[in-house]
Amino acid sequence: MEIVMNPNTASLKRDIDQGTDQQRLAVLDIITEVRKSGDAALFSFTEKFDKVALSSLKVTKEEIDQAYSELDQDILPVIREAAENIRDYHQRQKRESWITTQENGTILGQKITALDSVGVYVPGGLAAYPSSVLMNVTPALVAGVKRIVMVSPPQANGALPAGVIVAAHELGVEEIYKVGGAQAIAALAYGTESIEKVDKIVGPGNIYVALAKREVFGHVSIDMIAGPSEIVVLADETARAAEVAADLLSQAEHDERASSVLVTTSEKLAFEVKKEIYKQLETLPREKIARASIESYGAIYVTNTLDEAIELVNELAPEHLEVLTASPMDLLGNIRHAGAIFLGRYSSEPVGDYFAGPNHVLPTNGTARFSSPLNVDDFTKKSSIISYSEKAMQENGRKIAAFARLEGLEAHARAVEYRLED
3-state SS string over 196-214? Predict the structure, then answer.
């Protein structure tokens, strides 16, 4: 892990994985086959990529009951409380339709309508992510989406992780399918015999899932193209090295391509954190993944002032930003670009990942410069409302016709003028 003194923006590390040509072609082949063969393709790809021969795709009531019996009963109340916190936070985001009137009889407004159907992709593989279920499904429920379909790759035993099934069932998701990868995205976008197509697809996944979402965008909507996870810790001399190191490793253990960065004004803290990271790595269960992440995409930047540190943070525009300084709230106004901002020693990133309530589906790869966390608005669409009275048309019709002719659109102008004659 490199320590960079007095860095400039040219020295900042950033990994934007756009996929290889070979990966893109593989994804296109998968999508084409799913559109052609439907369920048969899903079974075939599941056996090929997940090494599981399934007899059915949909999770049954028996599998749901089995998941509840397997789940540690101490964790069920935690899932329920987390779900309530997430719901409460997202309820505050909900917006209502509105209408305004003018004295000449004009009526203008905006009608907000929930999407009819949404597909939620939950990653699988070596890990289980019940938190992804809560974070992706809850804002859709708050928005009023009636049909929510969840897909996730099966484990070696052909089942989904108990926590994933339970989290979905607790939220009332009725369609849960054991299929993952690009084939799951294709099924959600175009439909198969078992899985009816949806209007929007949300949820993170590997590079094949990301590329598939990019390919189907336009036929359906998507939330974002999520890259590897990332964290930036902004710290001064008051931060504790062991805690900073643990926070950096909390992202590094996600993925070998995850990025963990410390930006600090304290050279002493920089060297202490570096030493502590390698100490903690020795006892970390996912040591191999975390070490590869730290070595390839980890960095420590030491600046002369907090203003310089904040400038670097805004340039990085991280997915997660922790502010571990003497007065973190004082810095909030100067932080412009970050997916989620964690203020103070007791607001470590896992607090937001699992329990506090804000969404953990966040913009990555610097896209926090122009993107937002997943929210209720992502599951609605807006219709404009326009109603002109006769008086309003008489007042404004000739202006509108003149504007149409300015653009060379005579039929537009006449469409207004016929009403003026009347």
Answer: CCCCEEECCCCHHHHHHHH
Distance CA 120, CA 148 (A): 7
The CA distance from 145 to 387, in Å, is: 28
Looking at residues 182-209, what average pLDDT do you find?
Answer: 96
Mean pLDDT of 201-229: 92
Domain ranges in the chain are 2-15+228-356, 21-222, 388-421
pLDDT above 90: residue 4: no
**CATH of span 2-15+228-356:** 3.40.50.1980
Amino acid at 390: E
Q: Phi first, then psi: what are they for 197, rounded to 5°?
A: -65, 160
List, in order, residues 6 or more apart from 283 with CB less than 8 Å away: none
Cα–Cα nearest to 322, from 239, 402, 398: 239
What's the whole-number average pLDDT of the chain? 94
Residues 279, 242: contact at Cβ < 8 Å?
no
Q: Name the CATH code of domain 21-222 (choices 3.40.50.1980, 3.40.50.2300, 3.90.226.10, 3.30.420.40).
A: 3.40.50.1980
Q: Choose among 295, 304, 235: nearest CA to 13.
A: 295
Give the strands of the sheet with 147-152, arranged side by side.
Answer: 175-178, 147-152, 117-121, 200-202, 221-222
Distance (Å, whole) CA 415 – CA 407 = 15
User: Contact, 250 vs 242, CB < 8 A?
Assistant: no
pLDDT of 237 > 60? The answer is: yes
pLDDT of residue 262: 96
Query: Is residue 292 predicted with pLDDT exceeding 60?
Result: yes
Per-residue confidence (pLDDT) for residue 422, from 0 to 100 = 64
pLDDT confidence tier of residue 235, bands split at 50, 70 and 90 = very high
Entry pTM:
0.90
For helices 130-143 and 162-171, angle between their N-to-C axes, nearest 10 degrees: 10
The residues that are catalytic are 319-320
Q: Compute the distance between CA of residue 218 and CA of residue 222 in angstroms, rounded to an integer.
A: 9
Binding-site sequence positions: 121, 183, 206, 229, 251, 254, 320, 353, 407, 412
Q: Are 136 and 174 in contact (CB under 8 A)?
A: no
Parallel/antiparallel/unpaired status of strands 2-5 and 147-152: unpaired
DSSP 132-166: HHHHHHHHHHHHT-SEEEEEE---TTSS--HHHHH
